[in-house]
Amino acid sequence: MEGCFIMIYRKMTSRVLSIAVGMIAVSGVATSAHAQTASGTIGVSLNILAACAVNGGNSAATMGRIGTIAFADQSGVFGNADATMVAQGSTNAVTVLCTPGLAPKVTVGAGANDAGNVRQLAYLGQTVAYRLYTDASRQDEITIGRQISLGTAATSALTLPIFARASSNGLALPAGTYTDTVQVTLSW
After folding, report:
1. Which of 43, 59, 101, 135 has the fewest CB atoms within 10 Å, i.e. the most exposed one?
2. DSSP-derived secondary structure letter, 55
3. In which element (H, E) is residue 105 found?
4. In the 8-state DSSP scheme, what is residue 87?
């Protein structure tokens, strides 16, 4: 009797399974017959403006402080003291990255204490003359208002190193921190 029960169970299970598979097949056919597709597009754009960025910034609309020149401490009477500008980002040059094809120019303007077309560091009415240069040998002076062409931009940054030299010119100067701020303009 037990064998009969197993055989009846197998036949019923087999029929139920056949019916279930048949229903799934019919339902799949019915669904496929009603499926539809539609396609479209997405418009994507990006407008790149001709622009330049200084020292790794995003844009040159306002450059802020692009670097500093700090002379080593000197005694009250000194000969030539040399220094190199350290740009923001700790490089030894101003870096300018522009849209390829642009021809950027840097104009190094006056300082806050200029006298007789010479830049001056000042402290409590005392001044120390200093000059800026594009080369370490200090032969190519950046005079007040000089415009320096950086070449034609490609995909790499253009650089402009700035070197400085100050001298007391044999005068005894009072102790203190002498300062100046030079205006720099980038155009393209």
Report:
1. 43
2. T
3. strand 105-111
4. E
**Do residues 65 and 163 touch, judged by C-beta distance below 8 A?**
no
| For residue 104, pLDDT beyond 70 | yes
CATH class of 52-187: mainly beta
Tokens of 46: 């990006």
Per residue in 125-171, pLDDT tens? 999 999 999 999 999 999 999 999 999 999 999 999 999 999 998 88
Q: What is the pLDDT at residue 58?
A: 67
In 126-177, the DSSP E strands lie at 126-133, 146-149, 158-160, 163-167
77, 144, 170 from 114: Cα distances, Å: 21, 9, 20
Please list, in sequence order, all residues whose beta carbon lies within 8 angstroms of the beta carbon of residue 128, skipping any fewer than 6 positions away: 120, 121, 122, 166, 167, 168, 173, 178
What is the residue extent of each domain of the chain? 1-29, 52-187
Q: Is 66 exposed, middle or buried (0-12, 13-18, 19+ CB in 10 A)?
A: buried
Query: What are the helix and strand counts (H, E) for the chain?
Result: 1, 12
Query: What pLDDT, on a 0 to 100 scale, did the predictor assign at position 54?
Result: 87
Count of positions (residues) in the chain: 188
pLDDT of 79 higher than 50: yes
* DSSP letter string, 7-18: HHHHHHHHHHHH
The DSSP symbol for 22 reads H
